Amino acid sequence: MEHKNQAFVFNDTIRAKDLGGGVVRKVLAHGDNLMCCELHFEKGAVGAMHHHPHTQCSYVVSGAFEFTINGEKKVVRKGDTLYKLPNVEHGCVCLEEGVLLDFFTPMREDFVTE
């Protein structure tokens, strides 16, 4: 939780966590009620289907992804956004190497205690 509640969080000071399978995550600015994360995906990497009690919004910084949200599949690209309600199953496959910014409310405690 080294960056919790800090007004300024500089990307080059954050340790990336290799999640395996071509996915790397950085936990960016966050507090108890909101968290921002940067995820880098290699082509073909999979964000496994999962659900959690957090509301999540994702912004596609680069690349292309096939997302499944609540059983519906769509391809998203740079500039697109996704909204995931709490406890709704979702996941993705990276079609072109890319980066996602994920926002969670409340923050994901599990991301800072891993």
Write the layout of secondary structure elements.
Elements lengths: L16 E4 L2 E9 L2 E8 L4 E5 L4 E15 L2 E6 L3 E4 L5 E16 L3 H5 L1
Antiparallel strand pairs: 1-2, 2-3, 3-8, 4-8, 5-6, 5-7, 5-8
| Unreliable residue runs | none
Relative strand content: over 45%
Number of strands: 8
Largest sheet: 8 strands, antiparallel
Your description of this structure?
It contains 1 helix and 8 strands. With 114 residues, it is mostly beta strands. Strands 1, 2, 3, 4, 5, 6, 7 and 8 form an 8-stranded antiparallel beta sheet that branches. The model has no long low-confidence stretch (mean pLDDT 96).
Output the keywords.
single chain, eight-stranded antiparallel beta sheet, 1 helix
In short:
By secondary structure, this protein is mainly beta. 4% of the residues lie in helices and 59% in strands. It has one helix at residues 109-113; strands at residues 17-20, 23-31, 34-41, 46-50, 55-69, 72-77, 81-84, 90-105.
